[in-house]
Amino acid sequence: MAIVDQKDYPNEVSLRLKDNFEFFQQKVEDLGDDISILCKGLAKLVVVDISLSRDQDNPQLIFESMNSTGRELSQADLIRNFILMGLKPADQTQLYNDHWHPMESSFGQEAYAKHFDGFMRHFLTVKTGELPKIREVYEAFKAYSRKPEIAEAGVDALLADVHTYSRHYCAMALGQEPDQVLSVAFRDLRELKVDVAYPLLLELYQDYSMGEFGRDEFIDAVRMIESYVFRRAACNIAANSHNNTFASLVKALKKEQCLDSLKANFLLLPSYRRFPGDEEFRRELKMRDLYNFRSSSYWLRRLENDDRKERVSVDEFTIEHILPQNEELSQEWQDSLGPEWQRIQETYLHTLGNLTLTGYNAEYSDHFFTQKRDMKGGFRESPLRVSKGLRDLDTWNEDTIQERADRLAKMAIKVWPAPV
Where are the beta strands (DSSP E) in 306-354? Predict the structure, then answer.
């Protein structure tokens, strides 16, 4: 109405309507004075109005058959229409206002288009124990809604259940968790980009919200899932089994002993789906290319802030290679590393022992170690835990890189613990 009346947009503007109107507005402006082509186009515009008889016609079937010839709708749009179309107008309005519109609003316009289909896939995995393909979510939802116990409970109960789980999803996946400690745990998990863990997390969140277990136990469970994902990534174990792993854990959990049950099931996973033990994790982490890891700042931030009450924001810091990346190392660096300096640089450049955080990356440049240590903002002055120990060293070589890697790897075992 604001567009038609040529007034300012409302506060909650529809991005799609705004973008579409501005697109056509620009096209018309580009025509200049010659609007004949626009008039010809408008003359070809056809409005189709189909009237149905509620007693005789199935609006959903007609909608599906018409839509099959055009651009595919999202799975979420198909589900919404499936739920609402068969209802009387008053019931449609009530369910839309009570449940669907609040869900759309909590996701936000952009996140709704991007995330809602994925959320419904996770919801159905929780409810059915089966992981539907993303393009088959609508069919899976129809099958689930027609189960006798779901159909008997009614559409209102079904949509209320979806609404409840959507709040859990927004808290975890979209950063809307009000509890600060939980919010940080969810943020850390999001950085690992493991969407397949959400069915298990949704089930745990629902039990937590129902009082089945306490906040501390829930936080421990979230951290255990994070440890599983990160340890496997650090050990370079293929992630293609994660789908089935997390789907099976949803079914295997014993609710009366949730955390112990989760740990036990992690420990019982077969070798290719295993939870890497401390020795494997320590060994592989030291030699892994962590600079090109999927989220390189994630693991340094976790090492820096573990068990800190006053968290250090590392967003303004960058990753520093103590031994520089420059293949043309200075003579001073070559002398310090010895005759095998090229092998040492190639082997350890991007590994745990040679990486730290700094706000002085440009100033450090390719300078020699003692210059980086003693300059303004250098290692001697660094307040960061991950740079601890560098201030006391006089040289940087293969031995000191390995010693620091050992120390940080021992820290990592505590930050990402294995189940006991």
Answer: 318-321
